[in-house]
Amino acid sequence: MNQYDKAMSAAEQQCAQSGSRLTEKRKHILSGLLKSEKALSAYELVDFCKNEYNESIPAMSVYRILDFLQSERLVHKLSTANKYVACSHITCKHEHEVPQFLICSECQHVEEIGISKSLIETLQKNAKKVGFELVSPQLEINAICHTCLDKT
Amino acid sequence: MNQYDKAMSAAEQQCAQSGSRLTEKRKHILSGLLKSEKALSAYELVDFCKNEYNESIPAMSVYRILDFLQSERLVHKLSTANKYVACSHITCKHEHEVPQFLICSECQHVEEIGISKSLIETLQKNAKKVGFELVSPQLEINAICHTCLDKT
DNA sequence: TATGATATGATACAACATAACATTTTTGGG
DNA sequence: CCCAAAAATGTTATGTTGTATCATATCATA
């Protein structure tokens, strides 16, 4: 079974477990994110569904579906880009770590990595110094991927 | 001289040094950010100029002025919030560090702190592992400030 | 099959942002 | 001092992201 199918079936499982439904439309949106190299905007997902499935989903519904997928921890929102990505760890069993996203400023390619406990502790300590408590931090860092670096 | 005046005069100096002009309108926008507890959107700055100076600046101009102020390193954009803040270190002489912003999810209060060399190195190393080079990273972390924590 | 809960549709609009072109203001050389 | 070039700002239109509200459809089950 390839990565895409694995992710889809893991998503099914996740929803079954939480007693929610992974409907056709929700699957289509998730599939768009899984198949894409880049993070996609809600409106790009509207286009994807039109092109791939000849299905017209209103933007409103896409936003709702994205909210649902985020609540199931299947999708992340990149707030710096106003775009969405499938969680890279859908197929993992272990608890999700605090996610960190590296976003290529050139090609928009995104890598999701975990943050080590010690790094989080450092961030927490620094935050505390100025009177803040981290809640559910998520790091988004703009960088350049090696593919794009090599091109220049 | 109070903090506000210090910041303004440091901004003047900075612009003089780089051979650019800190016009009235640019000063007004910067003053809005300096006086505000929170990060402000471009449109909130339009309102500020109307209220404070009875001056109607089109949104377009505010965006241009914000671009200018950012290029002079007097202002930062918080991409997660689509809002803008005055740099906390306008009055410092030393080189600007990579900035990190703690943003209160409740009251929108923002604290800017520097990131230690060692923390940056760690981030850099982690990025490299997945094929990315940091360029000019900026961390934005959503958290809760103690004032808001105490309220609940 | 009726009922309530969940999911989706339709319409309108708010908030953030930029493109393209026009006008005004500033500045420095003749 | 005046003119030309450069810089700053104005005007208008439009693009992009996101939400509010109310209507309708679909599903799960008693």
What is the gist of this entry?
Two copies of one chain form a homodimer. With 152 residues, chain A is α+β, with helices and mostly antiparallel strands. Helix content of chain A is 47%, strand content 19%.
Q: Any overview of this molecule?
A:
2 copies of one chain form a homodimer. The first copy, chain A, has 152 residues and is α+β, with helices and mostly antiparallel strands. Chain A folds into 2 domains: 3-86, Winged helix-like DNA-binding domain superfamily/Winged helix DNA-binding domain (Arc Repressor Mutant, subunit A, Orthogonal Bundle), CATH 1.10.10.10; 98-151, Dna Ligase, domain 1. Chain A contains 6 helices and 6 strands; from the N terminus they run ααααββββαββα. The first copy, chain A, has helices spanning 3-17, 24-35, 42-53, 59-71, 117-129, 146-151; strands at residues 75-78, 83-86, 99-104, 110-114, 132-134, 139-145. In chain A, strands 4-3-6 form a 3-stranded mixed β-sheet. The relative contact order of chain A is 0.13. The mean pLDDT of chain A is 94. The interface between A and B is medium-sized, with 34 and 34 residues. Strand 6 (139-145) of chain A pairs antiparallel with strand 5 (132-134) of chain B, so a sheet runs across the interface. Chain A binds a DNA duplex (30 and 30 nucleotides) through helix 4.
Question: SSE layout and pairings?
Answer:
Two copies of one chain form a homodimer.
Chain A: H1 3-17, H2 24-35, H3 42-53, H4 59-71, E1 75-78, E2 83-86, E3 99-104, E4 110-114, H5 117-129, E5 132-134, E6 139-145, H6 146-151
Parallel strand pairs in A: 3-6
Antiparallel strand pairs in A: 1-2, 3-4
Helix pairs in contact in A: 2-3, 2-4, 3-4
Chain A binds a DNA duplex (30 and 30 nucleotides) through helix 4.
